[in-house]
Amino acid sequence: MGKPRLIILVRHAQSEGNKNKDIHQTVPDHRVKLTEEGWKQAESAGTKLRSLLRPDDTLHFFTSPYRRTRETTEGILSSLTSDSPSPSPFPRHTIKVYEEPRLREQDFGNFQPCSADMARMWQERADYGHFFYRIPNGESAADAYDRISGFNESLWRSFGETDFASVCVLVTHGLMSRVFLMKWYHFSVEYFEDLRNMNHCEFVVMKKNPENEKYILQNQLRTWSELKKERESIPQSPVPVRKKWGGSPDGYDHQVASNSDRREMKRQNTADLFKDDGTASIEQLQKAMRRNTIKSKENDKQAARGRDAPEEAFDLPNEPKDLNIFLKPSPNSNATRIISPNRLAVLQTGRDGGGSESGATSRSGSSDEEDRTHDARPTVARMRSMAMALHGAFDDNYGMGKGVRADALGDQSDVSDEEDGAEALEKSEGSF
What we know:
Elements: E1 6-11, H1 16-19, H2 36-52, E2 59-63, H3 67-80, E3 96-99, H4 115-128, H5 141-158, E4 167-172, H6 174-185, H7 189-194, E5 203-208, E6 215-217, H8 224-233, H9 259-264, H10 270-273, H11 282-304, H12 321-326, E7 327-329, E8 335-339, E9 344-348, H13 376-390, H14 421-428
Parallel strand pairs: 1-4, 2-3, 2-4
Antiparallel strand pairs: 1-5, 5-6, 7-8, 8-9
């Protein structure tokens, strides 16, 4: 017979994998079967094929060995050879069907991973290029091109056989149909990647020209570039602007300060929080601290000689005027308030000399059996020492060590550990 007058490419009907991509995680790709809708599509394709044939045509089918393509072939043959509604001129025994492994689908690498990994892989393939991107543990379209090239050569040689059919039908897959056309018509890689996929059971017809015996493509292949132009040509309807009913009536958006704004805000030291024009100056506090240091050393010497050191209160600058401004006893309470225009704090006096609430009624350094009555002056002195501690004015003689001052947030200041409390206060004067 020679060359067939028609070569028809048919993509398989709808499969379960087309309806549910996750099925490839549990079912091998070559075992995926058709859906009920797919069977209907295959039978409709047989009716359509019957309308394209001449009564004297002979048929050769080449099908991929995958289950969905073999079932599609069976569906086509069932309606093509059916005697309903009229007797078919194509009896089943006159039609030859060949399984051709080289028409199989592109290998996607055995069981497929989860949907998220597959979506990432499809995106990676789109960025890399559909033709050259090789599926992990699978194939690229270029690999499929190599095996379809071998099939085309075998098919061309079979055209020389005298009993070859007048119509050749290839039941294969979407990508393999495009690769077949790429090889046959010498499409470029760019044009191949621009081609859209065929629909299920869509026919791509190649008709032989009697004059030169070349095959002319009867279909207008769809491309992504043309689809993009069609979408751009459609006028876009304006998106209606919705009226905003919520939010503040004056339009205030309650925006908080950004990180850059926060960085520009000046951090405030603890000394700044207690700065007050009416309090004792840093110089007065510094002098008082030095006098108290000398008295403390004298008391230690007397104790070493076996004599009881007289209990002396700390000297306060400009007392009692400055004292009343800086430290103000709270009525009916052992608490002493530090008054400042920047901050108000309440300190509870305790047996440890600190702010322990549990020891608020005990004298500093006393036990529960000791007399809890004490004069106001030592209590004021303790409050005075706590105020000095807040300023960071203590040194080693007061048992505080050579620490660094902390700012209002508790962070370390720029004062080094090698500087004593007095030097730190002098350096911090510039911020007052």
